[in-house]
Amino acid sequence: MFQRFINWRTLLTTIAIAIVTGTIFYSRYLAEKLAAEERMKVETWVEAEKFLINSPADVDTRLVSAIITNNNDIPIIGQTEDGRIIEYINLDSAKAKNDSSYLLRKIRQFRSQHDPIIYTDPLNGKKDFYYYGNSALLQEIRYYPLVQLLIVALFIVVTLYTVSVRNRSVQNQLWAGMAKETAHQLGTPVTSLQGWVAMLKEDPAHEKLAKELAKDVDRLQLVSDRFSKIGSIPVLEEKDLLEQINNMVDYIKRRAPGKIQFIVNSNNATNIPVKISASLFDWVIENLLKNALDAMGEKGDIVIDIKTAQQQVLIDVTDSGKGISAANIDRVFKPGFTTKKRGWGLGLTLSKRIIEQYHKGQLFVKQSEPGKGTTFRIILNNIA
Length: 384
What we know:
Helices cover 57% and strands 18% of the residues. The chain is an alpha+beta fold. The protein folds into two domains: 2-140, no CATH class; 234-381, Histidine kinase-like ATPase, C-terminal domain (Heat Shock Protein 90, 2-Layer Sandwich). It has a five-stranded mixed sheet with strand order 6-8-9-11-10. It is rod-shaped, with a radius of gyration of 39 Å.
């Protein structure tokens, strides 16, 4: 699936580059061709204008008059050698009358676009300079590739976003399906084990063994329950956040090396009510604590800081382990990413899904520094 996504992205990018490149070259060709035609049109207009001014009274001027009046799209400004404006057409007359610098600004603009048409008077040798700008059509042709580039870029972005959303949807369905199938497969052996534990409890000689086995069976039942809720909409119930976290800390502490110190800082709070799915939220805390243990080895500190801020509850899980490199911070929640020799790299992925999709909160790396440790932050809605 990922390979198909890459191939589609490459194909779309290649097509877009080909379209834009072809359009740019063709538009430049049309623009240069039209610019040459417009210059010829301006030259003809200048000749017609001078002929009309200097022609005898008995000469038929209908043709040159038609040439002059037919130019209704190319702006032209005539200026003498000493800088006096002779005439102008296809410009804002009101601005030209009220703003003395308007025509001069336009001359500077036209000079940057085209070389002026120079008319030399055959009688006195004086020169008049005719500056002209681009017609509206020429402007549109020159800006058209940019417009098309934006359209193609928007098309690519929308297409890639659609493909990405579809792939994420398929991926989510796959994770949910695997989780539910795992829960289903666990159901039968767990039920059988519960029966055997019940039988062992009836024999006083196996009471201690039955008690320990019951703990493991309950643990398996909890795991099965967690997996069964992935892909479904869990029921959120009001729970005491401090109690939930302390229970998980106690559970992990019994399985951690003796030199690992756990610190839960509630900032003087005695009860923090939140709406959560208890089994799924416990899974998140368990994953974060296990990751912290893996990062520290045999000794270190794990600090869980809990505080309320406005309408939110902030939970920071900090370890004194090896930290996460800057290159990997954005990858820690990606499916399959892991720095451990064993593991599927799904713990943090599922944890983020549980917090953000099911609890409408946030889970992210607040800070991390190689060799000094990492802090994960969970943000939940405060119902107090």
